[in-house]
């Protein structure tokens, strides 16, 4: 994510989600937000990653972190994926790919990179990481990172 760095002001956005319209700045008024950019609904690694975060949602909540997952797939696709795996956090639709692009999570061929961005209540980026599609950060790894900030 070359264009944004830790400490930079996070670009604000509003996107449709499985839980209605989501605005980043409004979410950050209450707590930090972990933006989880992921390549695809119902793919092997993405499913493992998002189910791990769901299983440890209480951990994130205890750290004062709201989880939002984002990719360009349709709301219908996100709704099916969330229902199939009982995901209770919002899955956001960035069909125009503007948010993925703004956050450096858009690959050369227009695919979404696996990326994590933690935005603080001051709307500043506190942490960011991009992984190869086959790798993912576990909830336990993120807990250590978040506690160290």
Number of extended strands: 7
Portion in strands: 15-25%
Largest sheet: 5 strands, mixed
Which parts are unreliable, with pLDDT below 50 for 5 consecutive residues or more? none
Q: Based on CA inertia axes, which overall geometry fits?
A: globular
Class of secondary structure makeup:
alpha/beta
Order of helices and strands: EEHEHHEHEHEEH
User: Roughly what is the average pLDDT, rounded to an integer?
Assistant: 93
Q: Specify the helix fraction band.
A: 25-40%
Total helical elements: 6
- Biggest sheet: strands side by side, in what order? 5-4-3-6-7
Specify Rg, calculated over alpha carbons: 14 Å
Q: Tell me the distance between the termini.
A: 19 Å
Model description:
With 149 residues, the chain is of the alpha/beta class. The chain contains six helices and seven strands, in the order ββαβααβαβαββα. It has helices spanning 24-28, 44-55, 57-62, 75-85, 98-102, 139-148, and strands at 14-15, 22-23, 32-37, 65-71, 91-93, 114-119, 125-131. It has a five-stranded mixed β-sheet. It has a two-stranded antiparallel ribbon with strand order 1-2. 34% of the residues are buried. The mean pLDDT is 93.
